[in-house]
Amino acid sequence: VQSLRQNFVIVNLGCEKIKSLMARQGLKSPQESVADLSPVENFRIPSKEELRELREQPIDPQAEQEIIDSIEEVYFSNDSFDMVQHELEKLPPELNLQELEEYRDKLKRHQAAVSKKVADLILEKQPAYVKELERVTALQTNLQLAAVICTNARRQLSVAKEGFTGASLGLLANQRRRHLLTGLLKSLRTIKTLQRTDVRLSEMLEEEDYPGAIQLCLECQKAASTFKHYSCISELNSKLQDTLEQIEEQLDVALSKTCKHFDVLHYNKVQLAYTLLGKTQTAMDQLHMHFTQAIHNTVFQVVLGYVELCAGNADTKFQKMQYKDLCTHITLDSYIPCLTDLCKALWEVMLSYHRTMQWHEEHDNMESPPSPDDAAASESDDLVVDRSYVKKKLEHGLTRIWQDVQLKVKAYILGTDMSNFKYDDFIVVLDVISRLMQVGEEFCGSKSEVLQESIKWQSVNYFKHYHRARLEELRMFLENETWELCPVKSNFNIAQLHEFRFMGQGRSPSVSPSRQAASSTGSAQEEPSLFQMFLLEGNPFERHIEHKEEETEDVLASNGYESDELEKSVYQDYDSDSDVPEELKQDYVDEQTGDAPLKSVSRETIRSKKKSDYSLNKANAPILTNTTLNVIRLVGKYMQMMSILKPIAFDVIHCVSQLFDYYLYAVYTFFGRNDMYESSSLGLISSRLRTTLNRIQESLIDVEAPGENAGVHGPVEERKEKVPSPHLSQLVVLTNSGTLYGLAQRVVATESLVFLAEQFESLQAHLDAMMPSAKKPFLQQFYSQTVSTASELRKPIYWIVAAKAIDYEQMLLLMAGVKWDIREIMSQHNVYVDVLLKEFEQFNKRLADVSRHVRIPLPVSNVLWEHCIRLANRTLVEGYANVKKCSNEGRALMQLDFQQFLMKLEKLTDLRPIPDKEFVETYIKAYYLTENDMEQFIKNHREYSMKQLANLVNVCLGSHINKKARQKLLAAIDDIDRPKR
């Protein structure tokens, strides 16, 4: 069918070609050929008549050819040639008829020659033309037949197309086309999705969904590589690469945000994003760089803010300054708020780093173990390498970040001179820095040498200036002190003072964990670290402000005594305070152990005391003065510095010891220095106390008057650390017998010193814990040589009162009038005993009068009674030693008098045994000794004076020993006395 169709087309085309060829050649049927000639052809081809004429006119062929050759070439150019126009243009301007006619005839000849030539050619080709025409006719008949065949073939083809091609092959073709279009549609949809990726990526970045954005971008890049044969996709691929780089930049910014405020969800996204990019290690490098930058930017902005705020003008020159120079422009008023804000900001950075490390540790622990698959194992190896790198980087970064923090804070600390700070302000600075050092210790185990060195330099500078001022202040206090009782509550405890609140572990943010463990009051649980306490909220550098607001101090009694009724009832105070804890009813409670000191007295002991305990009517309240309280407060302040600054602990403890030394020296100078009444035989001042007083005078007291020549007692630098000796206030009168020679003031002064010593004893463990190991012997020596001697001052101070309170001279005069060489035993004692006992009764009454104003503790009353009884007994011995003549009956009278004295005295005092009782009894009994026994007695009893021993030899033994023996005994007495001289 197909070949038939092709043949039909060829035949058709052939017929058309022949027709067109005939048309171009002008060959038609004989009937049409002449009729269809154009006007030109009619003109050029002669008519039949002309042809006949031409045939009839014989023309020479050669001549005819010449005529044709003579025709202008232009007539043979083309059919569009206008020969009439050509000939007219050739006419001359002036026409000549004859010439025109001649020229016309010439043209006619030319035409005739051409026409004849054409006619000859036609006639010559006539048979061939007829023959060819017959062939054309036959061809036309064949073509008609071919047309019929083609028509039939087309009809058959139409039937075949309709029945087979359209139904089956068309279906297959459509299916194939559908399959191709489906694939194309899928590709187009993917391309459309890829082209819309930018919008979705932007949305995801705004939502901070960095992992999703990177995942999408990587998937798009993978898809783009699949469809890279599309021209639109090739451009998209480069755009996706740019977008991925942009995401990395935004991811870097997001990573930097974690340096100040760590958010777990945010950090999860960022780390997952870097993992998808395969840049975990790069992320860690970038993170450390951001932390370093964050520290620098944070501190600079904080300090800049305060500097600009204090500057108060719009000058922007501060922004161009270096951080170190900027720190020097901080004012004193803004120093602490700026330091606090600085530490708060740095804490946020360090907390973020701590939480970052914590996140990585938890993340590593949560990861599942690797599978045995080779590909998974290889991937797991890479993961292990990444983890190892991250862990080492983070651990190394701890030290680097803390070092940066230290250097920034150091620059701030050294930028200001703190020597003129108020104490409380300086303590706040130390507290903040100490808390920062604790943060450093918990952060990376650092001892913060940089911070310690800088704060130590400032502290030494400040402390020297501060201590010098405090010593001068203490001297002023002592010189203006009237030694009146400072009314404090009976349960007064130094822990109630603001200055000692730092020792309470729960309220002390400045105490490091090691110190807390050392000074813990028995708490079994270890206090959590700052990073645990403030992991999610809060800031450790806000605590000292809250602590300050919470401080309350209630240590003073309302009106000097806690109740006026205490005057009326001895035990009322003990019956009315049942709601007060037992330990608060004691003088003070040791804050370390919670136990009462040995000197505290129980309720039963108090109730068992008799009238000689002059402390009952003042409820056992501690005896101290305002100056004592001031010294205690200073000690608390100094200890605060020590607890915060261990490097200068020795300097501070040395200064603490000087406070106590100066107070002790002042009390001794005011009340105990009186050589007139000192007796070395009584040992009023021990060699240890004497050594201590001499040491204080040499090391601390500036004995040089202002007008004297400087440099005699040492260089100027050494004298700067010394303080002039204090002078007792003129308001204090110690010569009035009505007040027992200032007994109240003496009690207040001495017992306040003893109370101060007790407080020092209670603080020894704290001081020892703060003291460097190499310097601990100094502290031990201070306590053993100085603090423990405080109570020893009672003897010389109260001796002066005891020596003046009773008229011992009168007793000697009365004893001198007694006759001792009697011959009969007397049953009645002598009058001088009654006089002496009346003196003691009067003394007892005056003690009671004094105790109404100042509580006289039992140890004080005991010392007073002991001194008075010792003096009385020694006066008795002295009186007996003045006797010129004495009989055995007289010696018995002495014993009677002394026994009467003892019996009545025991009713006045609870002091047992009676002091120096044996001193008198032994002297009296020595009368009965033989010569040999007396010699041994003289050697063994050196407590008696040479006069007293000589009197024994001369008076007592003189009656029954010879002169030689007496001389021998007197010589023995003289030998004993010689070393003393």
UniProtKB/TrEMBL annotation:
InterPro entries: Syndetin_C (IPR019514), VPS50 (IPR040047), VPS54_N (IPR019515). Residues 230-257 form a coiled coil. One of its GO terms (molecular function) is SNARE binding. GO terms for biological process: endocytic recycling; protein transport; retrograde transport, endosome to Golgi. Residues 740-974 form the Syndetin C-terminal domain. GO terms for cellular component: cytosol; EARP complex. Residues 507-526 have a biased composition (Polar residues). Keywords: Coiled coil, Protein transport, Transport. Residues 506-527 are annotated as: Disordered. Residues 68-359 form the Vacuolar protein sorting-associated protein 54 N-terminal domain. PANTHER family: SYNDETIN. This is VPS50 EARP/GARPII complex subunit. It comes from Tetraodon nigroviridis (Spotted green pufferfish).
